[in-house]
Design brief:
This protein is an alpha+beta fold. Helix content is 31%, strand content 12%. It has helices spanning 6-21, 43-52; strands at 28-32, 38-42. The longest helix has 16 residues, at 6-21. It is flat and about 70 Å long. The N and C termini lie far apart (71 Å).
């Protein structure tokens, strides 16, 4: 693959940034389900139909922080008999 010049690379990066900024909800897509039915239309409508059947087209957002809790204390179970 030929290397891009600085100007070509800048133009390509600008185009990719514009594409990323564009709203994905306006894209026409078609999705098929295991029962043989298909839904075709705008992304927003198709994702709603998929959600009604229990499918997510977008992943869940990543949790904030490192996922190790809030630093609270944890009582260790020491075994033995319960008293309460």
């Amino acid at each position: 693959m030929a290397k891009l010049t600085k100007e070509e690379r800048a133009a390509l990066e600008a185009q990719l940034a514009d594409d990323d900024a564009a709203d994905d909800d306006d894209d026409d897509i078609e999705i098929g389900f295991g029962d043989g039915s298909y839904v075709k239309g705008k992304y927003r409508r198709v994702s709603e139909a998929a959600a009604a059947r229990g499918f997510k087209l977008r992943p869940d957002p990543k949790p904030e922080g490192d996922g190790k809790g809030d630093g609270g204390t944890v009582k260790r179970f020491t075994g033995g008999r319960r008293t309460g």
